[in-house]
Design brief:
It is a single chain. It is built from ten helices and two strands. The protein has one domain: Glycolipid transfer protein (Glycolipid transfer protein, GLTP), CATH 1.10.3520.10. The chain starts with 10 loop residues before the first helix and ends in a 7-residue tail after the last helix. A two-stranded antiparallel ribbon has the order 1-2. It is globular, with a radius of gyration of 19 Å. The chain is mainly α. Strand 1 and strand 2 form a beta hairpin. Bound molecules: ligand 1Q0. Ligand 1Q0 binds next to helix 2, helix 3, helix 5, helix 7 and helix 8.
């Protein structure tokens, strides 16, 4: 992967964070997972103020989880000091599975009404990641002429309607439609990921898509095992 000089967003960094997230056979580390979202915010920043709302939304969701993690860490320190127990690796918000365990044990997850639990917050990011996976997969297709000519903006819209839109109300869907207009045309997009042709783009995008898939699938299974795919 090429390094883009002078750019804040680096696709190599995004890929590195995504690839650092999977741990053991079925878990996902939260630090690199959230760092991937930080990197996507940098991408959005390059698109201008039209998508500011989306960056803000991602920022607020990642901040909720990071705040909870910090609080849990302090609590964990206290427990270790008071009971002279050894801290466990799987404590608090280290990974998605430790977060689920911690929040369930501490009664932090509400299955009936909206709260700011880490689990319900991560579910929002998780659903958005499926959209991103679908979008980048379509964008990376390097087959027919027709495929190569479809505009990122249209692909954005179509994939959104098939995924994330199901979870959004009318107002958010309208706001999303506005944001799609800010999606640059392919040449500008290529520049942001530092490639020149569709076939080069396809290679980069497919690597990112595969990395997202691995993370998404693990999170999906972890949430599903705990009946958390519909948390309000
Ligand atoms: C130009 C980019 C278009 C992206 C289109 C995605 C549509 C999003 C529209 C959303 C507006 C956000 C307003 C708030 C929504 C919340 O109601 C909702 C639910 O949360 P809650 O607490 O009310 O239950 N929140 C969410 O659904 C969170 C997710 C927000 C959207 C995340 C979009 C991710 C964008 C990623 C950047 C794409 C760049 C790709 C570049 C990769 C290059 C290799």
């Amino acid at each position: 992967l090429r390094v883009c000089p002078g750019m804040r967003f680096q696709v190599a960094d995004l890929l590195a964070h995504l690839q650092a997230a999977p741990v053991s056979t079925n878990d996902v580390l939260l630090k690199p997972y959230l760092a991937s979202w930080d990197e996507l915010i940098k991408f959005l920043e390059a698109l201008g103020p039209m998508v500011g709302l989306i960056s803000q939304e991602i920022e607020s969701k990642t901040a909720i989880i990071r705040d909870l993690a910090q609080k849990a860490e302090k609590e964990a320190e206290k427990i270790v000091k008071d009971r002279k127990r050894k801290p466990q690796l799987s404590f608090g918000y280290t990974s998605i599975r430790s977060m689920i365990k911690w929040e369930l044990e501490n009664g932090l997850v509400d299955f009936h009404k909206q709260t700011n639990s880490g689990c319900r917050t991560l579910l929002r990011l998780h659903r958005a990641l499926l959209w991103l996976q679908n979008f980048l997969q379509e964008l990376g297709k390097d087959g027919s002429e027709e495929e190569r000519l479809r505009s990122p903006s249209d692909l954005c819209k179509e994939t959104y309607q098939h995924t994330l839109a199901h979870h959004h109300n009318w107002w958010v869907r309208k706001a999303a439609e506005l944001a799609f207009l800010a999606m640059p045309e392919r040449p500008y997009f290529y520049q942001l990921v530092c490639v020149e042709t569709q076939s080069e783009a396809a290679v980069v995008l497919n690597r990112v898509v595969r990395a997202i898939e691995e993370v998404y699938e693990r999170n999906e299974v972890a949430l599903q095992e705990h009946g958390m795919l519909d948390l309000p």
